[in-house]
Amino acid sequence: MLPMFTVKTGKVIGRSHILSGRNCQDSLKTATIELNNQTYIVGWISDGCSEGDHSEIGSTLTTQFLANQSILYLKRGIPLEVVPLFLFEDLLVFLRTNMASQHLTTPQDRAQYVKDYLLFTLVGFLIGPKSSQVLAYGDGLVIINDQIYRRDYQDESPYPGYLLIDSRFLSPTRRLLPQEFDIYSVKTANIQKLAIGSDAWLSDFDLLDHIWGHKHPNQVQRNMNIWSDEKKLADDASLIVVEAVL
Q1: How far apart are CA 246 and CA 234, in angstroms?
Q2: What predicted TM-score, i.e. pTM, was given to this entire model?
Q3: CA pair distance 166, 43, nearest whole angstrom
Q4: Where is the PPM-type phosphatase domain positioned along the sequence (predicted)?
Q5: Which end of the chain is less packed: N or C, by CB atoms within 10 Å?
């Protein structure tokens, strides 16, 4: 029998953003749907770049878009394993369309718009009845059972938005930009626990011991509120926790 899952989420503004009067630039979105009597769970986290004045706008729009697009493909009968092959190009089209709507006339204006609104990292997952995939671009956290992937680019994280900018406006020493999501695959029957998070957790890694096994649906958010009050989580922090029901 395939496992059933609980899904818990949490998001708090980082201590550094509180002190500087900046908005929370993280965004998250989850959805559960039933298709042909089978359950699919979708989750996305986007972490806006702190250098952007309003990167929470692109971050929020993108998690909603990717969640909707993921569900759309599943409803169309596209195999879950194939969906990620479409999503990254869809994302770039979505961002280019957004930028085109601003009627920016010069490469400099377009680069500045991307910097202000469209720089963010992404981590998401698609859980299906047989197989599941975690997708990531840039910094962040992925946990699949006992496997922990600390995606740390040391302040040189790639952002999908960089692919919209004329290369003349990017640092010549910056690493090559990926043209697709990194993908972590797992059989759904093997998932005992899974979590994705923004890169704030890489600095407060010890807190992750306390995200599992809670009965109350809002306990992850409650814990993150407490940690924020205790002046932990210096950066904006988002987390989606999935656990098999035993």
Answers
A1: 34
A2: 0.95
A3: 31
A4: 13-154
A5: N
